[in-house]
Specification:
GO terms for molecular function: oxidoreductase activity. With 309 residues, this protein is of the alpha/beta class. Helix content is 33%, strand content 14%.
């Protein structure tokens, strides 16, 4: 699975599987990144907001020293919400921390602006404790800045993250460059099919985040996942990661545990019956209004996701 790729609208090949680094603790993430790359992972997903890019960079450097070549891996990072009026600065800061000259893909992490002059670099707050958000900011203006980065050589492609259908429909009429990627939460309990279908139609590749249900893997016990895992003699984690391959999406799995990093490389070919079982499960949750979204930060903004509007 490590070598399977999809094609982006830029012509680049993007690996089907990547290592996530959100909440990867200091003291562990360097080893996780180095271990993953040496084990055959080709994609590392980072973000300025994760506040661990310096250590991720140390892991990259360790892998390069062990013979992994920069041109053979795909590094993704994201502009954080306090930098969406200063995207080149945001990218530059990430590059310096990662110790890289360029990334392969740079994403708008969330479509909004938090106060760049607020009381914190990443999470500025108002006196009442709420996030300090500049509600007058138009996310399309961020995208116009992202488009300019492509000519700088600091990123090979630009894309978005956490864009609903509504937000994409606001963005696309103004886009000179169609986003290469939309990175969204995606798993059988949150298929977000309306976004996946629109992205497919527009040539935007989906990167699926929190495929295990995020911290602790709450989806491991979902009934169809257990059933399919037993049928193939694999762990539920393998079923949840494999779900994305027939969907044509890249999947990001976070782990700082070397054995899990290894086992997450071993995906399975789900057959038509497996896919139907998982789709039926998604449809049932949708019909019952029981979809599960595990990542919804307290921005207090309506991002246009039907399960949260
Ligand atoms: N654009 C965005 O806004 C977002 C992007 N992301 C990206 O997607 C990545 C993945 O999503 P994330 O939310 O981290 O969650 P995941 O769905 O990848 O789940 C991570 C959790 O599962 C555990 N785990 C991993 N593999 C196994 C395994 N084989 N067996 C048992 N447990 C396992 C990890 O534990 P341990 O590490 O202790 O081994 C951790 O607790 C992120 O790290 C980030 O890069 C995620 C959320 C939002
Ligand atoms: O990428 C992962 C998530 O989006 C994460 O960056 C946010 O949830 C952030 O911690 C926040 O609280 O806004």
């Amino acid at each position: 699975m490590a070598n399977k790729t999809f094609k982006l609208n830029t012509g680049q090949d993007i690996p089907a599987l990547g290592l996530g680094t959100w909440q990867s603790e200091p003291g562990k993430v360097r080893e996780a990144v180095a271990h993953a790359l040496k084990a055959g992972y080709k994609l590392i997903d980072c973000a300025y907001c994760y506040a661990n890019e310096e250590e991720v960079g140390q892991g990259l450097a360790e892998a390069f020293a062990a013979g992994v070549r920069r041109e053979d891996i795909f590094v993704v990072t994201k502009v954080w919400a306090t930098y969406t009026t200063r995207v080149e600065l945001g990218l530059q800061k990430s590059l310096e921390k990662l110790g890289l000259d360029y990334v392969d893909l740079f994403l708008v992490h969330w479509p909004l602006l938090m106060n760049p002059e607020g009381n914190d670099d990443r999470f500025p707050k108002l006196p009442n404790g709420e996030r300090d958000i500049i509600h007058s900011h138009n996310h399309v203006d961020t995208w116009k800045q992202m488009e300019k980065l492509v000519g700088t050589g600091k990123t090979k492609a630009v894309g978005v993250s956490n864009y609903s259908k509504r937000y994409l429909e606001q963005l696309l009429p103004h886009a000179t460059i169609v986003p290469a990627v939309n990175q969204i939460e995606n798993h059988p309990a949150l298929p977000q099919q309306e976004i996946v279908d629109l992205c497919k139609e527009k040539g935007i590749h989906i990167m699926a985040y929190s495929p295990l249900g995020s911290t602790g893997g709450p989806l491991f016990t979902a009934e169809p996942v257990v059933k399919i895992a037993e049928k193939h003699g694999v762990k539920p984690s393998a079923v949840l990661l494999s779900y994305h391959i027939p969907r044509g999406s890249t999947v990001l799995a976070k782990s700082v545990t070397p054995e899990r990093i290894n086992e997450n490389l071993n995906l399975v070919d789900l057959d038509a019956d497996d896919v139907k079982l998982l789709d039926d499960y998604s449809n049932k949750l949708t019909a019952e209004g029981k979809l599960q979204r595990f990542v919804y930060p307290p921005f207090g903004v309506d991002f246009g996701f039907p399960d949260k509007s």
